[in-house]
Design brief:
globular, 31% strand, Archaeosine Trna-guanine Transglycosylase, Chain: A, domain 4, 9 helices, alpha+beta, Pseudouridine synthase, single chain, 3 domains, 20% helix, 9-stranded mixed sheet, 340 residues
Amino acid sequence: MPHQRHPWRGRESPRRRARRDARPARVPLIPLCLASGDPRGVVRMQSQDGLILIDKDAGMTSFDVVRRVRRLAGTRKVGHTGTLDPDATGLMGVVLGRCTKLANFLTLDEKVYAFEMVLGSATDTEDASGEVIEVAGWEHVTREAFEEAMAGFLGTIQQVPPIYSALKVDGKRAHALARAGEEVHLEARPIEIFELELMSFEPPHVSMRVRCGSGTYVRALVRDLGKAVGSVAHTRSIRRISVGEFDLEQAYRLDELSEENFWEKVLSPARMVGSLDQVHIDDEQRRAVGFGQTILVAPELPMDAPIAVIDANDELVAIMARKESHDPQGSRLAPRRVLI
């Protein structure tokens, strides 16, 4: 019996044709460089990139803030520029979109904190939320003795971080290990204290202000100050006043923000790194940066320091660093973080 060809083989069946006709028409994809309206093909920054400054309330973790900002911004690409203790309040930088690549450059900025300490009792968390683990007399501590002890904390010093911290030990958070009852050992590390100011001295309560470098723990500073005056101490409150060039006057409480006004409050990527040295580049150099290439710029720049690279539209396109070069025409920059 001769083989009979299926009536629809090689042809489109009526059912498939009906499904195809019911689909919405495809819209041709337009490259971002053309969608930007730039006929030269220069890609422009998207709008969902930037930094928003938050005045954090007590009782919130840093991740609580990130989670709230994700809902307000309508994006999951959100991070922060440095943790703040749950019981601490004050300035917290939250980065969005491609600016999450730049968080580390703000983390390194110096910070200012106002804090209050309580002499005479130490807690396991080194703040008011913990259990008291030691008590000691404080009546002998005079203002003069306290100020003398303060002087020993200026400059570069060694500090052991609190065990209740976000630092990792063998891949696990130190605070998680401590809460599980495990013994946690953290090594001392160098920190910088630029200024330490006594605001009020009414023992056992002492209020202070510190300007310090990255990696400084105020709770550990209070712990060590207590020991330095022959007593013990814990932190009653901490408020972060500023980070680099940003301060609380530029920050918003979360209850001031809504989905409608959120993006009005976001600082541009270029504004975010305004404290860095900057160079401006043309469109040809911009294309080179986009391909991860080095570029040659005229001014002499510090070796290895992060440089903000700004295009003709005053948009941040990359963070670069000067590399070793003997080119007499200027400095050669290599990409560290590219945003285009």
